[in-house]
Design goal:
The protein contains no helices and 24 strands. It has 223 residues and is mainly β. It folds into two domains: 13-126, Immunoglobulin-like; 131-218, Immunoglobulins (Immunoglobulin-like, Sandwich), CATH 2.60.40. The strands form eight sheets. Strands 17, 19, 22, 23 and 24 form a five-stranded mixed sheet that branches. Strands 10-9-12-14 form a four-stranded antiparallel sheet, with no helix packed on it. A four-stranded antiparallel sheet has the order 16-18-21-20, with no helix packed on it. The chain is rod-shaped and about 115 Å long. The protein starts with 7 loop residues before the first strand and ends in a 5-residue tail after the last strand. The model has no long low-confidence stretch (mean pLDDT 88). This is Ig-like domain-containing protein. It comes from Oreochromis niloticus (Nile tilapia). InterPro entries: Ig-like_dom, Ig-like_dom_sf, Ig-like_fold, Ig_Fc_receptor, Ig_sub, Immunoglobulin_dom. Residues 28-115, 130-198 form the Ig-like domain.
């Protein structure tokens, strides 16, 4: 038995007699030296629920890295592991990407010097496209006043911006100069017409489906 203080690939063989008769080499065993650097895995963006088709980055960061160059080993939901020079995995999310991700770093300058595995982070991907809905505090527009429209996304998750439309579905989103912005999900409109909305988030923008159309009429017109 021996005690080793360096990482590397070790093997042994036996010998006896004079001259020495040697056995064949044993199978090799790899000894890795654990370093104090900490590996941390994160999601960008870090929304709790991702939808199929959204862009997501799984990133590995190693603390106290200094000028050290690292290789990164990943443990992924499909149970595969592999080395990569890049500290991130870019995904066009799908349901099969759901699961736990972990990473560790391997020092390129000091062979067999490695970090501990990071804690796992869970990526949850839904295969169902989120839906937008629109509502109005009134469908009758008083002369000289506004009607408040509200857009919401189901399931309710963080990160959404709201895009508003009037007229045909091929139209461009309404400009803020055309409406009164009450909050991120509410606007006031002063023109009659057919309105609908949808949500979007991320870069590039991932859009929900369009909401149903809601019709706003001027006071005095038949409903």
């Amino acid at each position: 038995m021996i005690t080793v203080t360096q990482g590397g690939i070790y093997y042994c063989k036996g010998g006896r007699g004079n001259p020495v008769f040697f056995t064949e080499d044993s199978d090799p065993i790899t000894i890795e030296k654990r370093v104090s650097n900490k590996a941390v895995v994160s999601l960008e963006p870090s929304w709790p629920l991702i939808f199929s088709g959204e862009k997501i980055t799984v990133r590995c960061q190693i603390s106290l890295g200094g000028s050290t160059e690292w290789e990164y080993e990943w443990s992924k939901p499909d149970s595969s592991t592999g080395l990569a020079n890049n500290a991130s995995i870019n995904l066009n999310a799908s349901v099969i990407n759901s699961g736990s991700y972990r990473c560790m770093g391997k020092n390129k300058q000091e062979l067999y010097s490695v970090t501990e595995w990071s804690d796992a982070i869970t990526l949850t991907v839904s295969g169902n496209r989120p839906k937008s809905s629109i509502s109005a505090d009134s469908r009758v527009l008083p002369e000289g006043d506004t009607v408040t429209l509200t857009c919401s996304v189901t399931p309710s998750t963080p990160g959404w911006s709201y895009y508003w439309y009037r007229g045909k579905k091929t139209s461009e989103p309404l400009m803020m100069a055309e409406v009164v912005l009450h909050s991120d999900g509410q606007i006031g409109v002063s023109q009659e017409g057919d309105y609908w909305c949808r949500g979007g988030r991320g870069n590039p923008v991932y859009y929900t489906d369009y909401s149903d159309v809601i019709s706003i009429k001027q006071t005095g017109e038949s409903w």
